Amino acid sequence: MIRKVPRYSVVDIETTGGKAGQGRITEIAIFIMEGEKIVDEFISLVNPESRIPPYISRLTGITNKMVEDAPKFYEIARRIVEITEDTTFVAHNASFDYNFIKKEFESLGYDYVREVICTVALSRKVIPGHSSYSLGQLCNELNIPLSNRHRAGGDAHATALLLKHLIAKNGGFIYPKEDFDIKGLNPALDLKKLRALPEEPGVYYFHNSEKRVIYIGKSRNIKKRIYSHLSARNKRALRLKENLTDVSYELTGSELVALLREADEIKQQRPLFNKAGRHSRFNWGIYHFVDQRGYERFFIDRIKQSISQPLDAFSTREKAIQTLSSWVEEYNLCRQLAGLEDNKGPCFSYQVNQCNGACIGNEKPADYNARVSKMLKKLSFSSSNFIVFDKGRHSGEKSFVWVEKNVLRGYGWLNQEDTITHPAQLEEYISGGTDNRDTRKIVRTWLNNKSTSQIRILKY
Predict the structure, then answer these.
(1) pLDDT digit string, tens, across residues 319-354
(2) Angle between the 152-170 and 135-142 helix axes, to the nearest 10 degrees?
(3) Which of 280, 308, 293 is nearest to 434 (CA)?
(4) pTM: predicted TM-score of the whole model, two decimal places
(5) Angstrom distances, CA of residue 87 to CA of 113, 116, 118, 192
């Protein structure tokens, strides 16, 4: 297959310093290339709407006075989108420039996505053996003109000439490396849509030619996770690729919300390629009560609205019995008090010296109940009532997951300025969330492993 001549947007920016999302852009230069030829350009100072530190001004020569009357980023954003449309984003140390520009667009509520080539990584591959791959050093050793060093126009133009040199050394045009294996993909699948997938938390859906959902997944990085599916080579993955004709997704902002959303969606839609998590009916529960003698006991019954919330829920009675039996064994509990035996005298375990005799009153309720309490603590959240606040789907929004009396009430999103003075006010913002053993386990596991400082947990 003959590939068309590629179009590149060779970019360089100057900034106020710091990392993307903190520092701001002070200058941008873009050279458009069709193959090896420069066909268009855009260069502009940018008012960063913040002060430029003196050490940055000494490096770039860009002063606060110079950018005072320059356009703000939002005033040139449309031009940047238009001139780079249908091009591959190229820069020296591309992640720096690309992420800064993405963050600027993100603050405007726009998702800027381009395929990316880094000339640092490309140079290491095409022309190995250099002691340094800095732009200045490469230009010096390759006799590439570089004027106005540390200004966007000069650096971007030199990067464009470097790209031209690399194309010649490569013996042909350079295309972005696919991060997934296109072999075996259904021809109806839009690769451009795959490349534009967001690198954010959410739930994604795979569709077949009949528009049916055949797989549902979640990830902290939707694009990276979907690419990993398309790169897998086992039989199941190859079947999935053959049937996949479209991809859709829902951003959640929060990994926890993505986990809960995925669990609900799999149980509701029961996709063909989701084997785990498809059991949607939790008809049986393990219940807990204190008898007249003061012993804490258990029983298994069908889940009914009229009965209190079960400790755990199961799709079959057999699975409930299996789980309760494992609790009895782990915490040295009495099978009779656990409702697993209904004989009048001592339980079988007592007869073989594996029960302390709570069933016949030989063990005091306080001693027995202490082990039960230890078991119940493992099943419960550290607090019975709490709300987890996390990132939203976009700036100005936050997500929440609400648990009350150890029951998942739901999840949803709020505007940052929304004021909540009582948990009941969250009712109108709930978008989903079903309480069952899977979702409670998801919340417990996530709370134990959470690592981001942006999470806030409100206990009440």
Answers:
(1) 899 999 999 999 999 999 999 998 888 988 888 888
(2) 60
(3) 280
(4) 0.61
(5) 10, 9, 14, 12
